[in-house]
Specification:
The protein has 73 residues and is mainly alpha-helical. It contains three helices and no strands. It starts with 14 loop residues before the first helix and ends in a 7-residue tail after the last helix.
């Protein structure tokens, strides 16, 4: 795991601000997300099933947004 460019300089002894910046950099880089994915092994078929379910829910959400609102009479 490479951590190049993920450094924060502490200025004026303000460690709290440096920690906040460091956490934001780590969050934006996706390292924590990758770590969570690698914690447990997931079979390729299960991974495909999860992706397919997410795609279906996105499609349903898109279809809901394209419908006309119900009549209010």
């Amino acid at each position: 795991m490479k951590l190049y460019g993920r450094t924060v300089l502490v200025q004026d002894g303000n460690v709290e601000r440096a920690l906040r910046k460091f956490k934001k950099k780590i969050q934006n880089s996706g390292i924590l997300l990758e770590l969570r994915e690698r914690e447990t092994y997931q079979k390729p078929t299960a991974r495909r099933k999860v992706k397919k379910g997410a795609a279906k829910s996105r499609w349903r959400k898109y279809l809901r947004s394209q419908q006309l609102p119900p009549k209010q009479y």
